[in-house]
Amino acid sequence: MDSDRQDGREPKSASSTRERILLLMKTRGRVSASELAAELKLTEMAIRRHMYELEHAGSVQTVAVRQPMGRPLHKFELTAVADELFPKNYHALALDLLTELDEDPETAGLIDRMFEGRMRKLRDRFLPRMQGLDLEERVQALAAIQNEGGYMAQVERDSENRFTLHEYNCPITGVAGKYEQACSCELALFRSLLEVPVERTECLAKGGGRCSYSIDGKASL
């Protein structure tokens, strides 16, 4: 019996084994089932089961490697999907670049223009999703848009036809904590998409437990 499986059920260690496989492939590049089996001290059959799951998830693909003689050798390599599983440091890079602009008197004014330009692009991208919707539908559509960006958004509605949009995660909190233009442009974006007054009542970047937006459904801009 393979050490990876007992009683026909996947043990808790299976996911950690696949994580080790992905880490090995990240550092080694293309690998064969036999190479992985030797490295992880598992049978090739166990490795192939894991590779099947990883291929099904879109993290790994099979490639044929030509040999000087004989049939091509089949190996595995990571896909672009798998690249997203590894740590990224984009926020640090963004902060470094913004700081460079901010510290140079000749370019400091560009920061406001960059955030405003980003807001306009997002507005133009998402406005078509608001067409023909009533306010409640627009608020729900906005929550869906924010969730697609990793904001963990939820909507509350009271009896006075007022809505509150809560965001429990801020993917750009590192940037927003230093450059409040990020928050002000998000607020301007929400007002433009919803076409009603919107006010921020809590902010993660300012120490709040979440970002909360009060949306007045009884008024119009």
TrEMBL record:
Sequence ranges assigned to domain Helix-turn-helix type in this UniProt record: 21-63
Domain of life: Bacteria
Keywords, sorted A to Z: DNA-binding
UniProt keyword Chloroplast, yes or no: no
Gene Ontology molecular function: any one: DNA binding
PANTHER family referenced in this protein's UniProt entry, alphabetically: HTH-TYPE TRANSCRIPTIONAL REGULATOR SRLR-RELATED, TRANSCRIPTIONAL REGULATORY PROTEIN-RELATED
Name assigned to this protein: Transcriptional regulator
Native species: Paenibacillus paeoniae
